[in-house]
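Let us work through a complete example step by step.
Step 1: write down the sequence.
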Amino acid sequence: MNERRIGYVLKMFPRFSETFILSELLELERQGISVTIFSLRGPSELHVHGDTARLRARVEYVPQAAWRHAPALLIAHMRVAVARPRAYLPACWHAARRWRRGSWRHFLQAGWIASRLPANSIEHLHAHFASIATSVTIHVRRLTGTTYSFTAHAKDIFIDGVDPRDLRRKLRSARFVVTVSDYNLRYLEPLDERGKLVRIYNGLDLDQFQFAAADARGGAIADEAPLILAVGRLIEKKGFADLVDACAILRDRSVRFRCRIVGSGALDVELRAKIDALDLAGTVTLDGPMPREHLIDLLPRAAAFAAPCVVGTDGNRDGLPTVLIEAMARGVPVVATDVTGIPELVMDGRTGIIVSQHDPGAVATALEHLLVDRGLAHRLAVAGRETVESRFDLRHNVAELRDLLVGSGVAP
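Step 2: predict the structure and record it as tokens.
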């Protein structure tokens, strides 16, 4: 296979919570796609997944639209203006007509990326998230004529303040648009005037996440209480406040368990206060962030996995959490809510248990079923793994994306 050169435009790389992007990039490289990453911001997190070291892609950090970077941005724009004067002036006029501070920042960064495309032999650009990264990418298209595509996830399309007209414009001029669930596909279809949308699930490396179900799980030693595990950023849409309430209900029912919530975020202090107020210290712990390679080892120790996701007060919600796919791949029975695309993975009573959001009592009852009825837990775990294998195989799903990328080099 001839190696194709694709540019990825990302808001920040690497980003600890975006394992799905890292996995996608690694698999694209394995399948013969050469990638250059344009990161609009430098990394700000202390933790990095070990798989990041396997990535061959060159990462170019785009200068911020700030005075200290003005010379670099000015030189980049001059190069683009000289190389493509007929495109540059209309692109400037378009940015001026839609003047906003954010738009001009995007335009300035786009000029820098545009100046770097020839040196990297970029044939096509792909952005993740329909917000900032795609906005910058559209400016690059206007400056250079390079085709682009993007993947729409969740916050970038559902959060309050997202302008449907802006999404429609982005869909209209893209070569193709990926979204990560059928729920998202139905939501975006009214804006898709030219049939650009395709659903491709985020995939998982099934060699890395091997099935490890057992009839008895939950502790490193036999007398350890069964483990309920939850993983995600400590933010509203993850629903961890409801999980803590559910744990209090389980405790009051004299159910033997312990719960570990893995992740960090803005609600850390609030959740710790709630745990203390409900007298759950020692039973429910907040463990902080964990590299993926460590999570792979931890998952088989869990008797149940909880993902009580909710729609946030600002409309923010999960699309289809990768960590749910990871848990099911490793053979952990799951309890999740009926938010967005989750029921496409967790089919109630078949591959897991689905409950309504904002219902700690239902979460508690579902978790109790899995802790008490290990036959049920095992059946759900086996079916969950089968679903992951059939619909969420990284190699198969990235091959779909690769075929789209390889066919996108010539503008329509």
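Step 3: interpret the result. The CA atoms of residues 156 and 162 lie 7 Å apart.
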